[in-house]
Amino acid sequence: MADQFSFLPYVLLATGGGIIGSAIALFWDPKAKIRSAIQHFSAGAVLAAIASNVIPEVERIGTVPQVISGFVLGGLTMMGLKWIIVRLEQKERQGRKMPAGLAAASAVDTFIDGVIISAGFSLNPQLGTLLVIALALELFFLTLSVGVEFRQAKYKPWQILLAGAGIASLLLAGSLAAGFIFAGATPATLAVVLSFGAAVLIYLIAEELLVETIQAEDSIFSTLTLFSGFLVLLVLKMLA
Predict the structure, then answer these.
(1) Cα separation, 190 vs 188, whole angstroms
(2) Full-model pTM
(3) Mean pLDDT score of the chain
(4) Which of 6, 29, 41, 116 has the largest count of CB atoms under 10 Å?
(5) In the predicted model, is pLDDT for residue 203 greater than 80?
(6) What residues have CB less than 8 Å from 23, skipping those under 6 apart?
């Protein structure tokens, strides 16, 4: 059981990073280019985690039906989530002040990220560690973005911190829940879960981390940070 929850120190650090992101949002509203640079760096790191870690492990332990079923389920889940978010954002435009769409998306994504991290550690501690690094960067950006949106909606500082801490704590909740579920899980089960996770992370890159690409298209700096994020995580894997 102790080995099954060896990810806890890493997840706690990542959760703390998410809380710090919401705290920074209390006094800093980054410009579009800076936010785009952060997004691109995070996207590069997550992309490296998928390409150099998740996919090779899935290919090694999974069969074609397992990979397809996990990936399709992940894709359908995120499309359903996007459908809900679009409806929430439509209500926001009709007069609701709370940024419910972004908050809901961040909460669900963070919980699923915790599940993916736990599955990664169950299969390979190196894979789990690299996933934590990539997804901690993503969590920091998400809580920063949510905090900025709440501040612009005139919420009080304690409410902003509470929202950020709540979202960040879902990383821990997801990893703990999955830790119990995946105790003694077979490679076939982990292959399906990681295939599901790959689809979720692809959605994360395409639909969340790179949403401000167009706003920064006149600068190559954000493109540089994309490759930098990928390279940093790739080097960490090679050194490990």
Answers:
(1) 5
(2) 0.83
(3) 84
(4) 116
(5) yes
(6) 147, 161, 164
For 169-185, the pLDDT digits (tens) are: 999 999 999 988 887 88
Question: From the centroid of its chain, how far is CA 24?
Answer: 19
Tokens of 63: 């069969």
C-alpha span between 160 and 170 (Å, rounded): 16
Q: Evaluate whether 101 touches 92 at the Cβ level (below 8 Å).
A: yes
Q: How many residues does the chain have?
A: 240
For residue 236, give both structure tokens: 């960490």
Return the domain boundaries, the chain. 8-22+45-239
In Å, how far from its chain's centre is CA 203? 10
In the block, which residue shows the tokens 């501690």?
125
